[in-house]
Design brief:
The chain is an all-alpha fold. The protein contains 11 helices and 2 strands, in the order ααααααββααααα. Helix content is 77%, strand content 2%. It has a two-stranded antiparallel sheet.
Length: 339
């Protein structure tokens, strides 16, 4: 203040300027020290009083303290390090996005409070940018999660389609494949449809908050297209099953005819045992009896297999009494040669 007053020009120097009188050009006030001290204290009080509203205004940013001290960064880092559901991440994105919008649209950038003018625009931009940055980190994880879920969905559809269009090699595979696809149609397909609905919901959310790469868009499209691709695949599967079933039925009929011929051949071999009477050839007779007995046991296994296939085709089980007749006739010879 004293310095400022000492710079005030003397009036007469302006009215009657005199060369060389520079030292007398300004006032030389004499102010007592106690007045200076009092004025300083008065200024301090005024500044302090005027500063209180400005200080109170800064409390409006207290709710963003966790952004300022980076507690939010630590929270997001820990949050993303753990396994999170898509909906949980979605809630955090909405939270930080609303926070960024609140900072930008509800914070006063410049405000006049008494003798102070507060410029908060840089702080507002910094806080908003930090909230957007945290939001972006979560969105990156969400995009990856979405891709992983869609990839798994496509792989499951592909596995079903691949199996549905496979040609079974035998009746067992035919029935297994038929049962598998029946389960898919009656149960699993509905779960897959629900997952497609969830995928659509994820996409609807992500397109509002982030940009997707061409690879992501292709994967999304592929996942959604599988739903419409399945009906034609099931129709083709039915054609394959029907053709395979006809082929398997014809093959079973042929195998049963040949099996009957085999049994007739075994029955014919029994006639040879009626001619065996040389005691020195007993070991050879026993060997022949054992061979025929083994073939009859194998024949029983074939009969059981035939019956299983007949049940699969909903046919009546075929009986083969000739096999039991041959075995009953062979048994006494077999026991005789063993003793």
């Amino acid at each position: 203040f004293v310095k400022a007053v000492s710079m005030v020009p003397r009036v007469e120097t302006k009215l009657y300027p005199v060369e060389g009188a520079r030292s007398k050009a300004t006032l030389k006030p004499v102010i007592a020290d106690n007045h200076i001290v009092a004025m300083k204290e008065s200024v301090k009080q005024i500044v302090h009083t005027e500063f209180i509203p400005a200080q109170e205004f800064t409390k409006n940013f207290e709710k963003y303290r966790f952004l300022i001290n980076k507690e939010a960064d630590q929270f997001v880092e820990k949050f993303l390090s753990e396994d999170q559901q898509f909906d949980d991440m979605k809630a955090q994105v909405i939270r930080f996005k609303e926070l960024a919008d609140d900072i930008v649209y509800n914070s006063r950038k410049v405000i006049r409070l008494g003798m102070f003018e507060l410029h908060c625009d840089e702080l507002v931009r910094a806080l908003s940018k930090r909230a957007d940055s945290l939001c972006a980190k979560i969105l990156i994880k969400m995009s990856k999660t979405n891709m992983d879920l869609n990839k798994g969905l496509c792989e499951e559809y592909e596995a079903i389609a691949s199996k549905a269009l496979a040609t079974p090699a035998n009746t067992e595979q035919l029935m297994e494949l038929k049962g598998y696809i029946l389960n898919v149609r009656e149960e699993r397909i509905f779960g897959l449809e629900e997952r497609i609905i969830e995928a659509k919901k994820r996409l609807e959310f992500l397109v509002d908050y982030t940009s997707m790469s061409p690879a992501e868009m292709r994967l999304n499209s592929e996942a959604f297209n599988w739903h419409s691709r399945m009906p034609p695949i099931f129709e083709e599967h039915d054609e394959i099953i029907n053709a395979s079933k006809r082929q398997a039925e014809n093959a079973l009929k042929l195998r049963r005819e040949r099996f009957v011929e085999e049994l007739e051949g075994y029955n014919k071999q029994l006639e040879e045992f009626e001619t065996f009477g040389d005691v020195s050839e007993v070991s050879r007779y026993l060997k022949k009896a054992q061979t025929l007995n083994n073939r009859l046991e194998a024949a029983q296994e074939k009969i059981e297999q035939f019956n299983l296939e007949e049940e699969a085709f909903e046919w009546e089980n075929t009986k083969y009494p000739l096999r039991k007749k041959v075995l009953d006739t062979l048994t006494p010879y077999h026991k005789l040669y063993e003793t």
